[in-house]
Amino acid sequence: MNTSVVHEDAFLFSAGHVVRTRSASLALVRGHTSEWSLLQRHCRGDFGELSPADRARNQESLGNGGPIMSAYRVAGMTLWIITEPYWSTTTVLLPEEFDQCFPSGLVAGRIGASARA
Q: Within a domain: residue 117?
C-alpha cells in the first residue's frame, strides 16, 4: 500500500494516515482523478454515493469518533474511503477489497449493510 498524511483545519475530521490499495491507485489513474480531491470531499462531509442510513451512521460517528465511510464513482468503478475509529488512519480501496483490508473489528461492524451489498 502507498501512504500519505492528510490534515486540514476546515475539515470535519482528520483523515490521519492515508493508505491505498494498488487497485484503488490504478482506478484513480485510469479515472484521471485526484485522490486529494476525494479525500477533501470525504473530510468535509461530502460522502458521495451512500444510502441515507449510511449517511446517518457517518453523522453519528462525527460525534463519537466512530468510523466514517464515503463512496465515489471513478472510472466506472466504486471507490470507498474509510476512516477508522478515532480517525488515525484512512484507507482508499475498492469494495471487493474490504474483507481483506478490514477482516474484523470495529470498522467491519459499523460499515452499513447497504454499502456492503
A: no
Q: Could you report the per-residue pLDDT of 56-110, keeping only the tens digit for each?
A: 999 999 999 999 999 999 999 999 999 998 889 999 999 999 988 877 655 655 5
Domain extent for 88: 2-112
Q: Could you give the angle at which helices 22-30 and 35-43 cross, rounded to 10 degrees? A: 110
Judge contact between 58 and 19, C-beta under 8 A.
no
Using alpha carbons, select from 81, 22, 90, 84 the residue that is nearest to residue 47: 81
Contacting residues for 71 by C-beta, under 8 A, at least 6 apart: 47, 48, 49, 50, 78, 79, 80, 81, 95, 115
**Total structural domains in the chain?**
1
Q: Which three cell numbers stand for residue 31?
A: 479515472
